[in-house]
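Forum > Structural Biology > Help requests

Title: Can anyone predict the 3D structure of Phosphate regulon transcriptional regulatory protein PhoB?

Hi all, first post here. I have the sequence for Phosphate regulon transcriptional regulatory protein PhoB but no way to get a structure on my laptop. I'd be grateful if someone could post the structure tokens.
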Amino acid sequence: MKILIVDDEEDIAGLIQFHLEEEGFQTEVCHNGMEVLPRLEKNLPDGIILDLMLPGIGGMDLCRRIKEKYPQIPILMVTAKTGETDVVLGLELGADDYIRKPFNIRELVARVRTVTRRTTDPSQEVQGTITTGKIQINPTAHKVFVEGTEIDLTLIEFKLLQLFAGNPGVAFSRDKLLDRIWGKDVFVTDRTVDVNIKRLRDKLLSEKERLETIRGVGYRFRDA
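Reply #1:
Sure, ran it for you. Structure tokens for Phosphate regulon transcriptional regulatory protein PhoB below:
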């Protein structure tokens, strides 16, 4: 499994590279945002560790561009900023998870394992097209259509929709969604759930009202 590390600080990139390779990952490193998109055109990694503060193209803009063209690639966003605004914006642009600097290297490796496992674990795949109302979900091709129009979803959004569509009328608490989608071994805040739900709802076009917020409980997908 190959991970692309994008960080302009060579010592930090080297530290991440060393520990990932110790855990059996293959790695590549980019120190400048301008290098990333040409690199992806030649060889797609299984995941990207993306620092926000980059020369060339900033991390936020790069995250958006990557997710527009390669929505299936999970991105772990790394930020030295302490404000919640940057984290929320990164998640809204498509980042699958985030970690703050200075980070614990073991936690970073665990998060990389979690975001990449979502794309490679065959036990999480559902065979056959799922149709609910005006929504069609093809898990094998990782495609979603609403009223015949294909919509682009990140991996997290896709997994959320897959879970909701397979369990219409079932209320899921934020804690339950965290366990089912992100995994129990990764620390993610409730705010991350809310941001991803909002982003998914906005993409569902005429079907967005079916993704309901249940005050004090969590979220539910209304049956068609």
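The domain at 2-120 is CATH 3.40.50.2300 (Rossmann fold). The CA atoms of residues 52 and 60 lie 6 Å apart.
Shout if anything looks off.
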